[in-house]
Structures are given as C-alpha cells and as structure tokens.
C-alpha cells in the first residue's frame, strides 16, 4: 500500500445529500463533531424537507447537510460546497447548481439506476455524459461496497445497505484526515443495546475509510489544521439546545423554577424536547393541547411565581397573540420564544426566515408594546435567553426572543461559559411580601425607576389580589373605565418598555477608518454579514458593521449611529421589516438587501450588495 | 401575622369590589353560596386562586378575597392548569359559563379533564350568551330564537355533564343556583376532590333567558337527586325511579309497579363512566325529570402531582441538576 500525499487546505465546505431516509443529517452531524473536536472552527446548515419520508429517490425527498470547517474562525456554513456527496440522482440534481467549477462530486453510482434517474428527471445518466465535465466526479458503488463489507454480519441485505451512509462517512473521514476513534466510540454508545448493529456500522465506517486509502480513485487526501479560536473549553451547540440551556441557566440564576408550556411545531420542538430531559433541574415542561393552552399555562405559571416560557414558531405566535396581549395587560414576566420559519401560513416549515419581526412588534390588538430581542448565532441563543429573562423579570413584561430555523438546527463551536460569571437575576425577582399602600396591597403601584409592578405570588398572605385583561386603575389595579386612566395606563405601559433601553448597552459598531457605509443587521444574518464585510475589507473597501440584539426598544445611541453614515444597508431575510422600523423611528433613508428564499444569505451575495451600495456612494 | 389560627368566615372571602351583575341574576346566589362554603374548606385565603375566562360568570374572581385571575375567553382551564401544575400546593378554581367553557374554550375544558389537573370547575350554565346580549349558546335548545338566530338555532346542544363524562372527568356533578344546600354540598365535595372536578350549575339569566330551567329549577319533583349507594328515586314522594332495562337502556319507572328492588342503585364511584353517562342522557336538556347531584367521582393520578413526582424521581436518579455540567456536555475540547 502506498502512502498518498496529504494536501493542506485552510477551509473546506462539504455537503452531504441523499434521500430523507439515507441518514444524511446524522452523517453530517458526526463529521461536524469530529471536526470540532479536532479544533477546526465549524458552521453547519442542515437543509431537509418538511415531509418525513417523501417518496424514495424523488426530488422533494432530498435531505442535505452542509458543513464548513476551517483552520480559522468562520462565520457561515459556506457558500458553495467544495465537495458534494450525492447518494442518488435526485441529490445530484437538486444540488449540482450550487457547485462552482472544479468542485468534487462523490456519487453513489449504485443508485444511478434507470428508475432513479427517471424519478430525478434525468433523460440520460449524468455520470456517462459530459454534463458534469466541469467537476471532478468520483463514482463509487457505495451500496455494493457496503453490502460486500458486511457480508459476514448476518444482517439482511436491506439492513446492510442502510449502513452506506457510514461507509460514505468513513470515506470522507479518510479524505479529510479525520480521526476514526470518536465516531467508533459514538456508534458503540448509540447502539449499546444492539451490539450487532454497532459492529456492522463500525465495519461499514472503517471499510469506507480503508477504501479511500486503497482505491486509486483518490490521488490524495486533505488536511485542515485546527483553528486559532480564543482559548478555553469548547463544545458544539445548536441554537435550540442553547436556548434551552439559557432558560435553565436563567432559572438557576434567578432562583425560580422553570416552566415551559408548548405545543410541537417545527423548528421549535427541540427546545421542548431538550427541556423535557432536564427534570432534574426542577424544570416543568407541559405539552399542551394547543398553542394557546401552551402559553396560557405558561402565563398561569408566571402568575404563580415560575420563570415561565412558551416556545413556538410563527403560526403558533399567531395563535398566542391574545394571550401575549393579556400578559402585557397583567404585566407578568413571560418569555415568548419564536423560532421563525418561512411564512406566511404554514409556509416553509423546515426553512429559515426572519419575517416575524413586525408580528412580534405589532401583532396584537390595542397598543401592547413589549421588548423584542434576537439571537445572532447558535451559541448566542444561550446569552439571548438569559437577557430575555432579565428583561422580563426586571420589567414584569412578556419578552419576545426571536431565533430562526437556521440558528435552531445549525451548530457551531461554543466557548462554554463560566456559570459564576452569568448575570445574577435574584435581585430582580423581588417578590412582593408586604402591603405597599396604607395597609393595602396595590398590585399596580409601580417601581418609580423601572415602572414595573409588584409581583405577589399566590401563597403570600395578606397580598390577595385580582388581575385581569380589563383595564386597571393606575395603582389599585381595580377595573377602571375612566378615560383619563386608560390614556395614562397606555402611556405607562409604553414608557415602561422604553425604559428597558436604560438597561441595555449602546450599539457597538465595528469601525474602520473612513467608512461611509454602515451595514446593520439583526438575528441570524450575523454570520453572513460579518463574513461579507470581512471580504469587502479584504477587497480594500471601508465598511462599518453593527448588529442589533435589542429590537424593541433600540439601544439609546442607535439614532446617533445611523446619522453618522452617508448610507446604511440593512440585509434581512424578509422584505424590509427592520428597515421600516428604522425609517419610522429615525427618518433615515435606510437601504435594504432583502431575499426570502428559505436559506441563509451567502457571503457572495452580501459582498455584492455591499459593493453595490458603495458604488452608489462614489 | 400571628400564630393563632382564627377560623375564617364568609365575609373574609368577600372582596371590597361592588358586585355588578344584573339584579335578579342567578350568579348572586352562586357567589354567596361559594363564599359561604370557603371557610369550611379550612384553607388559608392566600392559597386559593380563582381563574376565569370571559362572560358574566367570569367576573366572579373580582368578588372573592383570594388570589384571582380574570383572563381571556375560553382559556381559563389552560391558565389554571399552569397555576396548578407549577404550584400543586394551591387550591385552584375555574369559574366559567356555557359559552366560555363549551364553545371557545371547549378544547381546553376537555383536555383539562382528560389530564386530571387539580382544578375545581364551576360551570354556570344559563343556555345563553349574556355579556354579548343574548345570542344562542352551545347549550341552547335546538330552534332557539335569538338575535343571531332569528329563524331558530340549527345546532344541536351539548349536555355539559355528558361532555365531562365523555372526557372521563374524575368528578362530575350538577346543581342549581337556588338550591342552596345542594349546591353548597356539591361545591364542598368538588373542592375537596383531588383532580379535575366539574359542576354544571343551572343558572337563571333573568334578562336573556329567564326561566330556562323552570321545568327543573322550581320543580323539586322533577329533580332526580343522585345519592351514592341509594336507589334512584324522585317525584313528590319518591314514587318514580330509574331502572336498567334488559336491553341495556335506562328507563323511568313507577316504583309501585316495578318494586323498589328493580331500581338502579347509584354508584358514583364506578370506574367505568358508562352508567353515569346513561344517567346524564335521561334528560338531554333540562326538561322533564333531570338528574341532579354527583354523577361520578373516581380516583386517577393528578397531573401536577405526577409532574412533581417525575421531577423528584429524576433528581433521585440523576442528582440535582448541575448547570456547569450541563453546559460542558459530554463532548468538549480545549483550545489553547
């Protein structure tokens, strides 16, 4: 056996694509884990259909997982893959247009039967004509090789063939010099109760690895050295796991029990799943009969003294709107987590979008202002959840936390935070224990600084009181239809939310000398925007960049920041919702770059958008 | 605060808010009755929560000197479930009406009963929408002429007791606003039941549906009083009764004709809700002989208690959660 040469690369993007049942998400996740443990920076983009199992071999049934890993810090899952692993013709067909010339395609040639080709809409076999001439195509009979490798296992042919994703993973692990041990260990623990299956999967995996080493199809393998990330202990985390952990952390740091009321909905359900496993933290999860009951129960738990949250996606928010309004009216702390997806209506359940900002801002009857914050990266979901809890508890208000499908399922290395350094929320809980007005308890007598009302939980003797959705008299909280009182209460509710701005940091702008253009973003566009600004700067352009965590209220210095530029560009995966808010608040002619495709922005398109704006300035 | 426990009185449960129902409304009697029962429960006021939705009945919590939450239309069982599930130490009441509970909130009602959250649900049934001024409700009789049904309503009504039994509620009873002793007895039993207890209370709306229950409400002989362990009899002198036919149906019989031994003996604690359901079918609407009293009371695990047990089990098995350990996970690596 000859030792093949190893070529160094600084960054590689791989996309695994196959049928929904081919195990592509699992394969991608494993490759990501190993890459992260090796010290590469990683960013991922799972992309799967809403159907659990669309017909095998069909175009709608293709499930993909893109992974970007590098020897330096990266911000996106990569624009176009360097390597596409296509398990069947449909996977090739749906992904080949994303490849640049020169990219490598590894295909499972066994799957290119006339039936599968027809299902994918191919007239001929692309492996046999010139249509893939621009690429380096490596045709591997993955099914045959896997079945052959598992000859002695005693498994049926179907079961053997099902392990082909592990063969492919082994092959890719060889190609990119990934260690095999972590994956072998992982398989052993996953199939601990089924040693036969564990052995078969490991055999398929190691056979794939050995195949890469021995076959003449590959001239050399690649290596991507570890990235230089800030020192510390890291793990991989998805946005949904980070939100769940953030809620647990906020509960621990506030000394309150956590209550989550929810109803299964893509892409938010994993937050419910994650928390349901954490009962030993005292976490109560409640899978309700519907979205409305999910938030209703959460609001009830908030009234009774829990740190309460509800998690859903846009359609669920639409159903919860009335209860969110009630929470605004009764002024109780409540976290409303919207893991946004493509809309309107059922829309694109498994795709990403950030088009629910105005729904969060205005989607209630009457004037019902509330704070809105957004997470920027998968790992940032953790800090965002804690910040949402801080605001909710301090100001006794429902708070919107916006994430999206890209953050929810995407993973990145995460510098594990020091628990003792997390914000201490005990001081802001501050349950009422004493009467507060001439021997009486007035539930709407506000804190003069925050305008928050006292939180007196049932079980507290002497503070029995009634709250509700009818307008309340300022102070006593009794039902009031007095015109002046209603006007005053409307202003007080608005002023309270405005005062949140006093407790948030000013917008931090990443500046370069001489920039006349500011690129301003919010939410999951953080990575692509930063990557594009970085690329523009490498190209010699002067561009400043900033990202909003707080969308209502805005940081106090935002108006001043905007006024400092000749041009402001706001890229959004919607038709210009933040842009509209900025124009309204600051009368600034903000420009937008807007695309709603269900996918995150590519670095290339944003770099072009920046170049376009700069051209307009010169 | 003192350590001596002074027994509470009815007036201790009356809030300082002016009661604003229409004069003559059946809600007054129910309020006075519930306030009167409260001291007998022996619970501190601060551990009691009244939750309501929207409607005339939903103003109830404002008049109770306890914790109270007047919420939104139909959602009271959901909000109350959150209170009860997060704080099993609290006694949680839901006050609702026929529209609130059975139309807009029907889903929450059946699921709270299925789940057996620890809630006492007082369902004021007046067979009409009062607060919106007189539209037909999901319990209004077929053909009801109202502002929204000038040619008569087309939808078949619910029988709330049948709905509750269909959802397998662990406590189902019926009473009447002006039957002071009977209602007090039902409220007390419901409030001490562990799990979801529902009482349908026939409540007269003297403005929009006056006399809807008169066939039963002011007509004691037509009330089939259900008593656990007793043969089911009614009439002026108990001359009528309920018997189970060989064909499997219930029938109204003359005791003198069939003999007392032929009467069905009421068993409120049967695990199977089938017979209780059949009793509820004796009168689909309150016209003619109508069963009143406790239809069913059985034990089943209670949602909030079970949730707590899972938490205790998880802690016993895995130890109290360690945040630092959770954040570190099982697959981490060091840089630098």
Task: Give an overview of the whole structure.
The complex is a heterodimer of chains A (618) and B (336). Chain A is of the alpha/beta class. Chain A folds into 3 domains: 5-224, 3-Layer(aba) Sandwich (Pyruvate-ferredoxin Oxidoreductase, domain 3); 235-429, Thiamin diphosphate (ThDP)-binding fold, Pyr/PP domains (Rossmann fold), CATH 3.40.50; 509-617, Rossmann fold. In chain A, 37% of the residues lie in helices and 20% in strands. Chain A is built from 21 helices and 23 strands. Chain A has a 7-stranded mixed sheet, with helices on both faces. In chain A, strands 3-4-2-5-6-7 form a 6-stranded mixed sheet, sandwiched between helices. A 5-stranded mixed sheet of chain A has the order 18-20-19-22-23, with helices on both faces. In chain A, α18 links the parallel β19 (517-522) and β20 (543-548). The longest helix of chain A has 20 residues, at 195-214. Chain A starts with a strand and ends with a helix. The longest helix of chain B is centred in the first third of the chain and has 16 residues, at 26-41. Helix content of chain B is 30%, strand content 19%. Chain B has helices spanning 26-41, 76-86, 98-104, 106-115, 160-166, 180-192, 214-217, 255-258, 274-280, 303-318, 323-328, and strands at residues 48-52, 67-70, 91-97, 119-125, 171-176, 197-202, 223-226, 233-234, 240-244, 250-254, 290-297, 332-335. Chain B has 2 domains: 10-229 and 267-310, Rossmann fold, CATH 3.40.50; 231-265, no CATH class. The chains are: A alpha/beta (618), B alpha/beta (336).
Record the SSE blueprint.
The complex is a heterodimer of chains A (618) and B (336).
Chain A: E1 5-9, E2 11-19, H1 24-37, E3 41-47, E4 62-70, E5 83-86, H2 89-95, E6 104-108, H3 114-119, E7 136-140, H4 142-149, H5 157-162, H6 164-175, H7 181-190, H8 195-214, E8 220-224, E9 232-238, H9 239-254, E10 258-262, H10 269-276, E11 284-287, H11 291-303, E12 307-312, H12 314-330, E13 334-340, H13 357-362, E14 372-374, H14 380-395, E15 398-404, H15 405-409, E16 411-415, H16 426-429, E17 466-468, H17 483-498, E18 509-510, E19 517-522, H18 526-538, E20 543-548, E21 550-552, H19 558-563, E22 567-572, H20 577-586, E23 591-594, H21 603-617
Parallel strand pairs in A: 1-8, 2-5, 5-6, 6-7, 10-11, 10-12, 12-13, 13-15, 14-15, 19-20, 19-22, 22-23
Antiparallel strand pairs in A: 2-4, 3-4, 9-16, 14-21, 18-20
Helix pairs in contact in A: 1-6, 4-6, 6-8, 7-8, 9-10, 9-14, 11-12, 18-21
Chain B: H1 26-41, E1 48-52, E2 67-70, H2 76-86, E3 91-97, H3 98-104, H4 106-115, E4 119-125, H5 160-166, E5 171-176, H6 180-192, E6 197-202, H7 214-217, E7 223-226, E8 233-234, E9 240-244, E10 250-254, H8 255-258, H9 274-280, E11 290-297, H10 303-318, H11 323-328, E12 332-335
Parallel strand pairs in B: 1-2, 1-3, 3-4, 4-6, 5-6, 7-11
Antiparallel strand pairs in B: 5-11, 8-9, 9-10
